[in-house]
Please model this.
Amino acid sequence: MGFSYTIEATAGMARAGVFHTPHGDLPTPVFAPVGTQATVKAVLPRDLKEIGATLVLANTYHLHLRPGSSLIYELGGLHHFMQWDGPILTDSGGFQVFSLAQLRHIDDDGVQFKSHIDGSAQYLTPERSMQIQHELGADIIMAFDECATPNDRTVAVAAMERTHRWLERCVDYHYTSGDPNKQALFGIVQGGIFPDLREQSVAAVTQHNLPGFAIGGLAVGETKAEMLATLDITLPLMPNDRPRYLMGVGHPEDIVESVKRGIDIFDCVLPTREARHGAALTRYGRLNMGNLRFASDSQPLDTTCTCYTCQHFSRAYIRHVIKAKELIAHTLLSIHNLHFLVNLARQLRQAILDGEDTFNAFATQFLEDYRQKITI
Model:
């Protein structure tokens, strides 16, 4: 039981490591498919295993509202409930508070909001977020934070300071009412795109001796250049001996750029969302599989891909099931897109293990290829 992080190799700021958890080791860098409602959309757990996924994310806010964390606890916890025996990460509900701005009111004690399902009044505090996540039973749980618009300094300051106060309460609750040997609490660094705020936030969050730390408040409206500049400021200030999680980031080029700067863990809805829109992710950009040019194309989505979809189905078939509005289209494209990002993280890890020259060559070539942006 318990958690620890081992760094196996570095390449500049990039790290290849292993985060040891009660439900198995997580080799890093790692990309986590998002299973918001205790399911990765259109994909079975056995398919996730075949893809090579090692970590899955579930959503505290959504599972609190439906079916309820107490029910999941009574039914054996989230691992049993969703039939995933590997590590699980749950977010705290903080991002949903941000995204449901029209339905909520924030004060220092917590957040009052209306359920997007039935309009019922709900109240989420740091302690309640911890309690829900304890009942869900995920391996990695997140402190309750306030995610704010990244470019407004006044808003960023208030959200950051509230996040720090809420972290104190999350730590107190978790270490008195939870089991730190079974669940690793990660603190979240906020501060928008402002270097001095990020520096303040790193200092405040990392004063707690937690098993890992996250960077929040990015990929929520700032430019890519602003995101990378914020990482350049933030990451050198963070502890080297703990995993670093960049929340909600999953575009392929962002993963490569972030690994170069020292990020270890990623999650994003991108691969399954793009699948539902009929798009395939490839090393050379995004393919719109509804395009007429694929109607008689006998090639797989990607001739170099080893996923189930590419090993068995043609572009013509995938276009056909998209046009016919068959649900298998979502499944086949989701399997491919998830495999692409999970495998990208695995390739980055191997390149780091192979040495700095190999890693730099791989990252440079990937970014050069991907930025061709062949969107057809």
